[in-house]
Design goal:
single chain, 544 residues, alpha+beta, 6-stranded mixed beta sheet, 6 strands, flat, disordered C terminus
Length: 544
């Protein structure tokens, strides 16, 4: 056994020494031939490659110019526009300097660049106009919001003003929708809706013998006037369309310049390819003997190594990598081809991870979802509130918490039974969750007939509008409630607390919830089917 082992070792050693000797002969022969080939390549390198390099460099600068013009066209403010224009000017200077250092295409390229520079100046002017129009549009939106706040304050002094307040809320929502639209026909549809709504407002004020000239005329001027919100938005869309058109035209000009450069590069490249082909043919002749002598020596060794590497090493590496990814990524799959131990091991890992992920998903859904209403539960609310407060402290945002209670729910439950009460809670939960429009807003069940909402980056004024929207949405469900003493249908009372982070605040989430609860208590004390607010600013708060 030992003799056979030694014989095998000697045979393997002699074979390896023979291969090494063969390789040495091949290397010496190749070195002589490659020296001759190197001289030819040196001539190619010193003459042709600099031309290709220049064409590639100039083409890269031109392509970069296309990106810079797109950045200029998309600039939303003056600093961004000025920075983009400065960068474009620097790029044009570098391109002109490159042309001075090379005599390639002095006939067409300078003329194209001069035209391109003129069009970029036109595009820059359009971008400046768009920024000015956008600034005017934002100012008009701020003025409209201020006017609407004054209208709300005036209307609240009138008895039974809920209908007028709701119409003003619709005006506010439509005016916000105007700034979000990017198509002219949609703006015109909103304009028709606002016209109808303002006419209805006028009629309501006339019925109450109020002076609509003072209340509605400023609103109509801000919406429909020559410099009103709608006309400002239309002008903004038109200048934006002109800007996009000019941007496309500039990019087409840049594409023409790039095509010119690519043609020049093609001519030079064609010449270099012909030279390279000759060099390649010569190199092929020199290398053929090396390939023939070396392939036989390494073929068997490489075949064995390749088989082991492909069949065992790579599959084990792949299995390890797939298991690592699958343990961190929910949708990852473990898949190893074959019918051996490695494949069976992969199937076992896959089955195990699938069961673990199914159990984790089921447990997470059970712990964070209310089983009756299907919306997040109190535990999910506490986690979301902690995340929202941390984000608000970093960004100095306002956070609003709204605590909601179904009015006289015990009487409802006693009259309609527990099944009816459960159905009522599911309807209320679904409507509350649907009414909150932002993805960042949160609505969950707090316990019993109480629900709670989290509104990130929402101040007291916006919270007031949202509370009334929620209250109106539940009232519009028209769920019969014969035992209610305030309405024939199910209503809700809301208590909201808002914390504004002007700087780091030491207030805890428990205090925020407590103040919302106090506000809810006050809403109930004032007769229910209403909302009250508690507003914090760096630790000081007021209740209203």
């Amino acid at each position: 056994m030992k003799s056979n082992s030694r014989h095998t070792i000697k045979l393997f050693t002699y074979a390896q020494l023979g291969i090494v000797a063969l390789f040495i002969i091949v290397v010496l022969f190749s070195t002589v031939r490659l020296t001759e080939l190197g001289k030819i390549l040196a001539d190619l390198t010193n003459s042709t490659i600099p031309k290709i390099s220049y064409a590639a460099s100039l083409n890269t600068q031109i392509q970069n110019l296309a990106t810079l013009t797109s950045i200029l066209a998309s600039s939303q403010n003056s600093p961004a526009q000025q920075l983009a224009r400065q960068t474009i000017d620097s790029s044009l200077v570098r391109i002109n300097e490159s042309m001075l250092n090379d005599a390639t295409d002095r006939q067409y390229l300078p003329t194209q660049l001069a035209t391109l520079t003129k069009e970029i100046n036109e595009l820059d002017g359009l971008v400046k106009q768009r920024i000015i129009f956008q600034r005017l549009l934002n100012d008009k939106k701020d003025e409209l919001n201020t006017n609407l706040q004054r209208l709300f304050a005036s209307i609240r002094l009138i008895e039974n003003s809920n209908e007028i307040e709701n119409m003003l809320v619709e005006v506010l929502l439509l005016s916000v929708k105007i700034s979000e639209q990017n198509r002219l026909h949609e703006i015109r549809q909103i304009e028709l809706a606002l016209n109808s709504l303002t006419m209805t407002l006028k009629n309501k004020l006339v019925e109450r013998k109020l002076d609509n000239t003072i209340l509605i005329k400023p609103l109509e001027r801000l919406l429909f006037g020559t410099e009103g919100l709608i006309n400002q938005k239309v002008q903004s869309l038109r200048i934006d369309g002109r800007t996009r058109g000019r941007d496309n035209f500039v990019r087409n000009l840049i594409a023409d310049v790039a095509s010119n450069l690519q043609y020049q590069a093609y001519v030079v490249n064609k010449e270099s390819m012909e030279d390279a082909k000759k060099v390649n043919e010569l190199a092929a002749q020199y290398s053929k003997l090396t390939i023939i002598s070396g392939v036989f020596a390494v073929f068997l060794t490489l075949g064995i190594i390749y088989y082991l590497h492909q069949r065992i090493v790579l599959r084990l590496v792949s299995l390890s990598s797939q298991v690592s990814v699958a343990s961190k990524t929910p949708d990852a799959v473990i898949n190893i081809d074959g019918n051996d131990e490695i494949a069976r091991l992969a199937d076992t890992f896959s089955l195990y991870l699938e069961r673990v992920k199914e159990q984790e998903s089921a447990l997470l859904n059970m712990t964070l979802t209310d089983p009756l209403t299907g919306i997040p539960n109190r535990r999910a609310f506490e986690r979301k509130l902690s995340e929202t407060i941390e984000l608000a402290m970093r960004n100095k945002w306002a956070v609003t918490v709204i605590l909601i209670d179904v009015d006289y729910f015990k009487l409802y439950n006693d009259h309609y039974g527990h099944a009816g009460g459960d159905a009522c809670l599911r309807l209320v939960a679904s409507e509350l969750n649907k009414t909150l429009l932002r993805q960042s807003d949160f609505c969950g069940r707090f316990g019993g007939e109480e629900f709670i909402c989290i509104l990130p980056n929402t101040g007291a004024e916006a919270a007031n509008v949202i509370c009334e929207t929620l209250r109106y949405a539940i009232e519009e469900l028209k769920i019969p409630h014969v035992k209610s003493t305030i309405n024939d249908y199910v209503t809700i009372s809301l208590g909201a607390s808002t914390l504004t982070f002007n700087h780091n605040s030491d207030l805890t989430k428990e205090i925020l919830i407590l103040e919302a609860d106090k506000a809810l208590y006050q809403a109930k004390a004032q007769g229910r089917n209403r909302s009250c607010f508690s507003h914090f600013v760096s630790g000081n708060f007021s209740l209203k």
